[in-house]
Amino acid sequence: MTENIENINQVIWELKRKVDENRRDPVLKRELLRYFHESRIYTERKEGVPEEGRSFLMLREKESTCCMLMHGAGGTPEEMKLLGEHLHEQGCTVYGMRLPIDPRAVDSGIGDYLKGRLPGRNGKEKEPPRANGENTWSMCLAQAEVVLDMLLSYTPDTFVVGFSFGGTIALNLLRKFPARGCILISPGLYPVNNGRHMAFRLWRKVLPALTRELAPVRSTMIDFVDMTRCNLEKITQPILVIQAKNDPVTSYKCLQTLKKHGSHPASKFVLFPDGGHVLINGKRGGEVMDLCGKFVKEV
């Protein structure tokens, strides 16, 4: 199997070189995406990712507008499937990327921390919990850059679509890549300031080292969101931002902030009175998909 993946990667490299030399050959572009997806699926399968949680490709026969879909921190590409199918029916090639975050991963709490510090049955101290490198934003962003770079080789008419944490990744991609446009659904820029979140922020200020040890994943995610907000500047590409006012996870301040930074005249901002956080698959799902399809066609 190792030889197979090496052969696939060699084919990908050769195809990308040929596509860069001859960008008018639609057959080469289709083959490039097909082999690239095969390589990612091989890796995900090897890592034990269940079939329903793997990346997906919906490839049109003819070269077409492309949409890169990214799920939230607690989900998988499966939650983007309905939107992907809708965009594919509208004539788009769709790539649903799996972000390298295990949705089952949770940070340890104070109880687990204390247990780790107390002597075990054998009298030896247990190691405190450590963060898994696969649960950090840096790996998610790095892999997203690889995927988007490949999709842009297929067509410059590529839109980045991000839900929740996937929207935070998308905003960082816009700063580096010439994507045609971006769709942000319930973007994760400002979490709802409930008591738990505010308490965690306070603990981070008072005991930063301890909170990083107790909740490494959550801490690094907050760092990433803060960094993204500080580097928004002017967003020159057209963006569509969709959010619900009653979102229990992210504040609709996200939409208001992005509206201030979105400078393109084709940008649109839609705030529903209800619908919650998971707008794609909720009661507003049909409206959200129609808005996304219309935006991609009109921009």
Draw up the topology in text.
Elements (H helix, E strand, L loop, with lengths): L1 H20 L4 H21 L9 E3 L7 E5 L10 H9 L3 E5 L12 H8 L19 H18 L3 E6 L1 H12 L4 E5 L9 H12 L1 H7 L1 H15 L8 E6 L8 H9 L6 E5 L12 H14 L1
Parallel strand pairs: 2-3, 2-4, 4-5, 5-6, 6-7
Antiparallel strand pairs: 1-3
Task: Summarize it.
The protein has 299 residues and is α/β, with parallel strands linked by helices.
Walk me through what this model shows.
With 299 residues, the protein is an alpha/beta fold. It folds into two domains: 1-48; 59-103 and 132-298, Rossmann fold (3-Layer(aba) Sandwich). Helix content is 48%, strand content 12%. The chain contains eleven helices and seven strands. It has helices at residues 2-21, 26-46, 81-89, 110-117, 137-154, 165-176, 195-206, 208-214, 216-230, 253-261, 285-298; strands at residues 56-58, 66-70, 93-97, 158-163, 181-185, 239-244, 268-272. It has a seven-stranded mixed sheet with strand order 1-3-2-4-5-6-7, sandwiched between helices. Strand 2, helix 3 and strand 3 (93-97) form a beta-alpha-beta unit. Helix 2 (26-46) packs antiparallel against helix 5 (137-154). The chain is globular, with a radius of gyration of 21 Å. The model is unreliable at 120-134 (pLDDT under 50).
